Amino acid sequence: MKRCVCFTLACLGLLAAKAEASNGPQYAGYGTQAMGMGGASIANPTDALAAVNNPAGMGAVGTRIDGSLTATAGQLRSNVQGSESSDDVLLFVPGFGANYQYQPDVTLGVAVSGYGAGIDYGKPIPAFGTSNVKSELVQMLIAPTATYQFQPGHYLGLSVKLGYESLMLHGLENFGATNDKDHALGAGLGIGYLGTLAPGLRLGVTYSTPVRFQKLDAHEDIIPKGRINMPQQAGLGLAYDTGPWTVAFDYLWIDWSREKALANSLTQGGAPGAGNGPGFGWRDQHVFRFGVNYQYSDKLQLRTGVSLANHQVPDREATLIAIAPCNQPKSAHLGFTYNVSEQMEVTGAYMYDLRHITKGKGASAGSEAGGELHMLTVGLGYKF
């Protein structure tokens, strides 16, 4: 049974094998409409991927199915002790959600989302090893979700997060890495609240536990405790409807600093693989997302937004930034939705990750990486 589950999730993750994202390995927002509004969605659910942003949001979207495909293109560059490398990125990542209004006050649904980061330079970096440098972290979540409307306009939601993770490290012999790939299963929970506080004004609150994965045996000699978990996170959102306009704001906290593999400093002091062993040196992120939606006509909506966050990699911890270049903590967004019929809608979104270059200082001096990425998402939604 375990092999069957691993195979299914691995197939879903193949297209996300080299995803680059805004907040660590996470996108600024999930769901095509949310993407067009800078990710601002905790209090503004719009489709059946709402569970990724706030499980309670599924209570407000009704019975529907949504699918999307995101194309990411750009170039990532690094310079490690004078060795320059680059990688041209072109990848496609799917998204899917389905929701069913089981009873007037109860919904049942599922959302599938992808996370990841990776690089393929096609050449060695002498400071890292003798083989061609290639890294790949893929994390996929399937989130069965239930909501309950306990008062009119007030919803509670619960998601069970079932995860698949794959990690490949290549060309890091100087750090003790074996050029190998391994996978693991994981699980966590997400809870949320969505409520109408006043006419047109909504509040959303959400919390996700860490998604704890099994040990990656092939990498237990270099990764603290052999595990890379998805961190706990919490968020709060507000949305306000006034005439044809909707304005939304989110704050999201991502707790990278509790996950030892990501948070431990490269100079932590412990032995590789130990709980106090070297890691990537990440710090927590505080993400602020702003979005505006305009109902131009009965058929057409237009939207825009921004996502602004601190960079999770301090300059003093940039030694390994070249193999995990999650370097775009700020992004600008545009989007639209066109209603083909009463049931079907087509949505598009564009995201530009504002260029950011990390330059190492102190023990990380001589390492830098950065790039420029464009994301284009097309989604189809069908309401029953």
Automatic annotation (TrEMBL):
GO terms for cellular component: cell outer membrane. Residues 1-21 form the signal peptide. Its main location: membrane. It is a multi-pass membrane protein. InterPro entries: OMPP1/FadL/TodX. GO terms for molecular function: long-chain fatty acid transporting porin activity. It holds the Pfam family Toluene_X. It is found in: Cell outer membrane. Keywords: Cell outer membrane, Membrane, Signal, Transmembrane, Transmembrane beta strand. PANTHER family: OUTER MEMBRANE PROTEIN NMB0088-RELATED (PTHR35093:SF8). Belongs to the OmpP1/FadL family. This is Outer membrane protein transport protein. It comes from Pseudomonas kielensis.
